[in-house]
C-alpha cells in the first residue's frame, strides 16, 4: 500500500472510532437483545476516545516532524493551523445547542444560579478550558470535553516535539513505556484510594490524558525514523491489534472502568495505528476504501455534532409523529444515525473546509508577527 493509502486507512479508522462513541451515547438499544459480548462492545465506546489521542499525536508527528526529529513549523503557525481546523465546527455545535442549554438551565435553577452556570459553562467552553473544570466539563456540548483536552495537547506540542526529536531510538521505546505507566498511574491511585469527586478529574483532566498523546508522538517519531521500505509490514500487526482491541471491548464489563477509560488500551491503539501506517494488509485496504475515506474526513463533524443532531432528531420525531411515528428508541436511532452521517458530510464539505481556509487567512497576521525576523542585508551585500 502506498504512503497515501496508509494515511487513508487512518482516516477511515477515525470514522469507526467516532461511530463507536456515537453508538455508546445513543445506540445501545440496538444491542440490548444481542449476545453479551456485542452489548459490551457497544457499551464501552468511551474507550475509543483514547484512540483519538494516540492517533492525534501520531498524525501531528508525521505532519510536523522531520525524520531527524526537527520541527517543521513555528509555534504560532502550528497553533493557527490547529485552531482553524477544530474551532469552527466546535463553535457551530455550541451555537446549535445554546437554546436547549439555556432553556434547561433556566427551568432547573433560579435565575441567578442559571446565569452563573451559563456564564461559567459557556465562557469555559468557548475558551476550550472546560475539561479543567469537572462540574462543567459536560455542561454545554458533552463530547466537547475531549476537544478541550486536545487544545491542551496542541499547546504542549511545540515544546514536547523538539525534546522527543532529540531522543535516540532506544530512548524512544523507553519513553513509550514510561508514558504508558504515567497514563495508568492516576487510575491505579484512584482505584486504591477512591477519592470523593476524583473520578471526574480522572476522566476529564487534560494533564492526566497527556501520556496517551505523547505515546502517539513517540510512535510518529519512531515511524519517521524508519527506512522507507521496512522489513516488517503492518499486514499482520494491524489485524492482530484490531482483534486484541475487539477482545478487550467484548470483555469490558470485567475490566475496571477507570483503566479502560484512561490509557489501558493505549499500546494496542498504538499497534493498530502503526500497523495501518505500515500498510495494514487487508484491514488497511478495507479502511482506505473511498466510502470510509469520505466518512473519515467528516468524522470530526460527526463526533462534535452528535448531540445537536440528536436533539434535532427528537424534535423531528415529535413534529412528524401524526404522519410517521419513529419516536420508539430503535427507529429513532436509525433515523438519527442517517441524519448524523449525512449532515456531518455536508458540514465538512460546505462549512468546515471553507471556514478552515478562512480562519487560516485571518490568523496570518498574528502568525507573521511571531515569526523570527531575518536580519536585513547591508547595502553592499549581494
Automatic annotation (TrEMBL):
Keywords: Acyltransferase, Hydrolase, Membrane, Transferase, Transmembrane, Transmembrane helix
TM helices/strands, residue ranges: 12-31, 43-65, 85-102, 114-133, 145-165, 172-195, 207-224, 236-257, 263-288, 333-351
Cellular compartments per GO CC: membrane
The keyword Acyltransferase is annotated on this UniProt entry: yes
GO biological process: lipopolysaccharide biosynthetic process
Domain Acyltransferase as annotated: residue spans: 9-349
InterPro entries attached to this UniProt entry: Acyl_transf_3_dom, Acyltransferase_3
Keyword Nucleotide-binding belongs to the record: no
Name listed for the protein in its UniProt record: Peptidoglycan/LPS O-acetylase OafA/YrhL, contains acyltransferase and SGNH-hydrolase domains
Organism from which the protein derives: Stigmatella aurantiaca
Amino acid at each position: 500500500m502506498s504512503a497515501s493509502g496508509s494515511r487513508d486507512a487512518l482516516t477511515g479508522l477515525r470514522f469507526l472510532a467516532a461511530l463507536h462513541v456515537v453508538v455508546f451515547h445513543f445506540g445501545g438499544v440496538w444491542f440490548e437483545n444481542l449476545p453479551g459480548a456485542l452489548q459490551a462492545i457497544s457499551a464501552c465506546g468511551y474507550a475509543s476516545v483514547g484512540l483519538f489521542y494516540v492517533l492525534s499525536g501520531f498524525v501531528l508527528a508525521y505532519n510536523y516532524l522531520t525524520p531527524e526529529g526537527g520541527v517543521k513549523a513555528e509555534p504560532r503557525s502550528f497553533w493557527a493551523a490547529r485552531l482553524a481546523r477544530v474551532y469552527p465546527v466546535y463553535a457551530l455545535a455550541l451555537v446549535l445547542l445554546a437554546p436547549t442549554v439555556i432553556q434547561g438551565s433556566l427551568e432547573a435553577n433560579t435565575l441567578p444560579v442559571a446565569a452563573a452556570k451559563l456564564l461559567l459553562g459557556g465562557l469555559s467552553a468557548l475558551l476550550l478550558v472546560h475539561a479543567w473544570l469537572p462540574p462543567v466539563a459536560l455542561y454545554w456540548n458533552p463530547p466537547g470535553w475531549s476537544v478541550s483536552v486536545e487544545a491542551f495537547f496542541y499547546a504542549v506540542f511545540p515544546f514536547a516535539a523538539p525534546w522527543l526529536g532529540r531522543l535516540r531510538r532506544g530512548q524512544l521505546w523507553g519513553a513509550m513505556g514510561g508514558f504508558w505507566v504515567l497514563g495508568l498511574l492516576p487510575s491505579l491511585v484512584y482505584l486504591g484510594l477512591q477519592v470523593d469527586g476524583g473520578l471526574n478529574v480522572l476522566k476529564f483532566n487534560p494533564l492526566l490524558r497527556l501520556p496517551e498523546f505523547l505515546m502517539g508522538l513517540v510512535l510518529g517519531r519512531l515511524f519517521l525514523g524508519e527506512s522507507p521500505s521496512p522489513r516488517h509490514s503492518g499486514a499482520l500487526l494491524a489485524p492482530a491489534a484490531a482483534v486484541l482491541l475487539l477482545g478487550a471491548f467484548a470483555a469490558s464489563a470485567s475490566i475496571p472502568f477507570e483503566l479502560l477509560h484512561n490509557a489501558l488500551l493505549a499500546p494496542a491503539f498504538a499497534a493498530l495505528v502503526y500497523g495501518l501506517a505500515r500498510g495494514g494488509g487487508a484491514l488497511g485496504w478495507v479502511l482506505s476504501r473511498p466510502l470510509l475515506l469520505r466518512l473519515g474526513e467528516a468524522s470530526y463533524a460527526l463526533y462534535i455534532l452528535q448531540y445537536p443532531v440528536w436533539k434535532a432528531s427528537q424534535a423531528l420525531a415529535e413534529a412528524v409523529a401524526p404522519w410517521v411515528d419513529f419516536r420508539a428508541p430503535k427507529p429513532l436511532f436509525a433515523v438519527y444515525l442517517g441524519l448524523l452521517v449525512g449532515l456531518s458530510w455536508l458540514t465538512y464539505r460546505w462549512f468546515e473546509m471553507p471556514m478552515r481556509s478562512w480562519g487560516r487567512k485571518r490568523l496570518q497576521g498574528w502568525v507573521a508577527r511571531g515569526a523570527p525576523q531575518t536580519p536585513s542585508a547591508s547595502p553592499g551585500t549581494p
